[in-house]
């Protein structure tokens, strides 16, 4: 009797141990991702404060950061190259992707990375004539495990009718589904989860957050319009997700998601 009891105990112990081992994250495959609409460096106090934005980014120890509403040497932003300035302040590698010329400079997307860029690409997104041009910044990086992943930051159109957002989402699906490289798509998508733009994206992308994780406006959020999405589903596991309680640095709250890249079995 004792023999069988001991055998059962050993079996349970080995089973639980193997389960825990299978579930334990591999630190070389963990990627900390942040998306943040920075309102071209303007805080809700009305001042221009890159140090505050940089402190928010640095505190989260992110590996990859996508920034929206990024100015490049515009008059309103004191001729600063915002993503480079934030890269210096956070000790991360910067990349700017122009969506349009604006106010004596340029305006678009920014990426900060703790990994070197393997490849970079700026995808102009379709839009109706007379409306704001939009873009998606794409980088391929090699993470600590030696695996290559794709990270894409974008900012979709803000018009109420949603037409441009829809055709922009269609374009993102077209260009980002071209292969099976594990991909993270993030940004200010200017759409709430129940609407058709997000429903289109959710067909091909996994969501990392509950629909009620509100991100805008930052002082008292009432809706979710900032997202971290990923594909394919079997290659990623969400370890942590958090809307950061920062109410002053911008009119959006930053969103942090910690993902683990899983082996391709």
UniProtKB/TrEMBL annotation:
GO biological process: GPI anchor biosynthetic process
Transmembrane helix found in the keyword field: no
Pfam family of the protein (one): Exo_endo_phos
Residues of the Endonuclease/exonuclease/phosphatase domain: 34-252
GO cellular component terms attached to this protein's record: membrane
InterPro entries listed in its UniProt record: Endo/exonu/phosph_ase_sf, Endo/exonuclease/phosphatase, GPI-anchor_lipid_remodeler
Extent of the signal sequence: 1-24
UniProt keywords, alphabetically: Signal
Listed GO MF terms: catalytic activity
Matching PANTHER family: CALCOFLUOR WHITE HYPERSENSITIVE PROTEIN PRECURSOR, ENDONUCLEASE_EXONUCLEASE_PHOSPHATASE DOMAIN-CONTAINING PROTEIN
Protein name: Endonuclease/exonuclease/phosphatase domain-containing protein
Upper lineage: Bacteria, Pseudomonadati, Bacteroidota, Cytophagia, Cytophagales
């Amino acid at each position: 009797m004792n023999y069988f009891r001991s055998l059962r105990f050993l079996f349970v112990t080995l089973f639980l141990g193997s389960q825990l081992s299978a579930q334990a994250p591999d630190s070389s495959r963990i990627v900390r991702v942040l998306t943040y609409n920075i309102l071209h460096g303007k805080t809700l106090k009305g001042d221009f404060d890159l140090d505050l934005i940089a402190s928010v980014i640095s505190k989260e120890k992110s590996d990859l950061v996508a920034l929206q509403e990024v100015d490049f040497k515009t008059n309103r932003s004191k001729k600063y190259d915002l993503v480079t300035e934030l890269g210096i302040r956070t000790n991360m590698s910067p990349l700017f992707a122009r969506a349009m010329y604006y106010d004596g400079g340029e305006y678009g997307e920014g990426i900060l990375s703790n990994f070197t860029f393997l490849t970079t690409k700026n995808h102009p997104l379709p839009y109706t004539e007379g409306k704001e041009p939009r873009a998606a910044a794409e980088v391929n990086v090699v993470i600590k495990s030696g695996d290559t992943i794709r990270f894409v930051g974008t900012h979709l159109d803000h018009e109420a009718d949603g037409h441009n957002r829809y055709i922009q989402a269609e374009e993102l699906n077209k260009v980002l589904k071209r292969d099976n490289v594990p991909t993270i798509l993030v940004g200010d998508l200017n759409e709430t989860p129940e609407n058709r733009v997000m429903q289109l994206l959710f067909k091909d992308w996994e969501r990392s957050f509950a629909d009620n994780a509100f991100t805008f406006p930052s002082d008292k959020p009432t809706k979710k319009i900032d997202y971290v999405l990923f594909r394919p589903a079997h290659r990623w596991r969400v370890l942590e997700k958090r809307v950061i309680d920062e109410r002053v640095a911008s009119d959006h709250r930053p969103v942090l998601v910690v993902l683990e890249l899983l082996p391709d079995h």
